[in-house]
Specification:
By secondary structure, the chain is an alpha+beta fold. The protein has helices at residues 4-18, 26-65, 69-106, 143-149, 155-161, 171-190, 204-209, 235-239, 297-314, 361-366, 390-400, 414-417, and strands at residues 125-130, 153-154, 168-169, 194-195, 201-202, 222-223, 228-230, 245-248, 254-263, 282-292, 319-323, 335-343, 348-357, 368-371, 377-379, 381-389, 402-403, 406-407. It binds one RNA strand through residues 40-41, 43-44, 46-48, 50-51, 53-54, 56-62, 64-65, 72-73, 75-80, 82-83, 246, 367, 374, 377.
RNA sequence: GGAUAGUUGGCAGAGUGGUCGAAUGCGCUGGUCUUGAAAACCAGUGUACCGUAAGGUACCGGGGGUUCGAAUCCCUCACUGUCCGCCA
């Protein structure tokens, strides 16, 4: 959620930056400013009214103490009107505040100045492409066929138990999952991230804090009985550790990593994009999260991208780094780098990581702040990235490393799989 | 699931209708003292909003109510502790 104060002070710059998203926020911002002005006026009146009421109430108390009942009763008469007035003003203020919030909830984050303008993923900027695309010759198989051939993943079995998008991993397929998770976690720890195991179900306040709620509840599985949501990413529970927290300056840097399953309803997805492991309702992911000082959050973002790149290199996968354009940029993000691996048999790039700086957008909702020596609390920056999402990595791993007589496990992963080949 | 007790400032913990944003202790910050430190003593120490400021308003788990006045009374929800039941 955007900061009201920033809207007041930097409206024009913001409008300019929002053009990267191809949206015009002028009317929204003007309306917010206008509503805020009237809200403040109302509050002024309300405060005065309450102050007067407080004063009278105190006098009445005093009079009672002195036994001056009659005088007290006279004063009581006067309070009725004040009460009515303050009630009305309170309602007005609440209504106005709600209108402000309604608008604020709809406005996405301000894009960083380096975000290219664009409408769709076609306008994303390729920052870097690295690694050789393997020449698999004639006999290349897509990963879902490899999975079947080597008995690694059973998609139909998952349909029987749960439905489409819930694959069952078998034998070496299951071991490969576990190996990747441990590999990713170990690498994250080496990079200074502390491992946590968060809850997989979160409450409404947490969903709101990171921006899944309101509006995107359709994306999450919801348990209505207890009003809990299955996490679509561990970003939600991890970042919410710091909801309603005021940090000290030397608490930085805060770096957490977690492995969790992730659950996404993916309503409306269809076609080749959902084939095999490309898009699932349940998948595994190792996430890295940082809470950073505003002064160096972009440096932290770069470090996170470097970390993810190193993972892909160790897995010997060809990848590219994209700077997302405004049209592809997530609602809460100010700047996002996507990392994609090349899936050699499908002959397409698959997004395996998304590394973002949310600046104060989430922190504002979370009330996640920090204090400089002697200063007032100010909002921290939140960042996160996948490091990495498993299914598409598995897809690329199977496809890219396939040979006529099996699938080679990359060197870096062998200590974890304990086998060299599938 | 049943019974019962709770939820107060960074922590502990008082406060059961008025002068309570809230005693006291601990912690923290600054000062005095000291060669330095500790101790002792003194002062300060929540958040948000409004206001140029002085100052004002709100917040004692959330929401609602009673009252001139609520941390305190009532309703409701959430959470926590304890006991019982069930269970990995």
């Amino acid at each position: 959620m955007l900061e009201l104060q920033r809207i007041r002070e930097q409206k024009d710059e913001m409008i300019k930056l929002f053009s990267a998203r191809n949206i015009n926020v002028t009317e929204w911002l003007n309306e917010v400013i206008e509503l805020d002005e009237s809200r403040r006026k109302i509050q002024g009146k309300l405060d005065d009214t309450l102050a007067e009421g407080n004063k009278i109430a105190k006098s009445i108390g005093q009079l009672f103490k002195e036994g001056k009942q009659a005088e007290a009763n006279v004063l009581k008469e006067k309070t009725g009107e004040l009460k009515e007035l303050s009630k009305t003003l309170k309602e007005e203020e609440a209504t106005t505040q709600n209108k402000i919030n309604e608008i604020l909830y709809q406005i996405p984050n301000v894009p960083n100045p380096t975000v290219p303008q664009g409408n769709s993923d076609e306008d994303n900027e390729v920052v870097l492409t690295k690694g050789a695309i393997p020449d698999l010759g004639e006999h290349k198989l897509p990963h879902w066929e490899l999975a079947k051939k080597y008995n690694l993943i059973d998609f139909e079995l998952g349909v029987k138990i749960s439905g489409a998008g819930f694959p069952v991993y078998l034998g070496k397929g299951a071991k490969l999952q576990r190996a990747l998770i441990n590999f990713f976690i170990d690498e994250a720890e080496k990079a200074g991230f502390e491992e946590v195991i968060p809850p997989l179900l979160v409450n409404e306040a947490s969903g709101f804090g990171t921006g899944q709620l309101p509006d995107k509840e359709g994306q999450m599985y919801h348990d209505a009985t207890d009003n809990l949501f299955l996490i679509p990413t561990s970003e939600v529970p991890i970042t919410n550790i710091y909801r309603d927290v005021i940090l000290e300056k030397n608490d930085f840097p805060i770096k957490k990593t977690a492995y969790t399953p992730c659950f996404r309803r993916e309503a409306g997805s269809y076609g080749k994009d959902v084939r095999g492991l490309n898009r699932l309702h349940q998948f595994d992911k190792v996430e890295i999260v940082q809470i950073a000082h505003p002064d160096n959050s972009y440096q932290r973002l770069d470090e996170m991208v470097e970390h993810v790149k190193s993972l892909l290199e160790k897995l010997e996968l060809p990848y590219r780094v994209l700077r997302l354009c405004g049209g592809d940029l997530g609602f809460t993000s100010a700047l996002t780098f996507d990392l994609e691996v090349y899936s050699a048999a499908q002959e397409m790039w698959l997004e395996v990581s998304s590394v973002s700086n949310f600046e104060t957008f989430q922190a504002n909702r979370l009330k996640l702040r920090f204090k400089e020596d002697g200063g007032k609390p100010q909002l921290a920056h939140t960042l996160n990235g996948s490091a990495l999402a498993l299914p598409r990595i598995v897809a690329a791993l199977l496809e890219n490393h396939q040979t006529a007589d099996g699938i080679n496990i990359p060197e870096a992963l062998r200590p974890y799989t304990k086998f060299d080949k599938i």
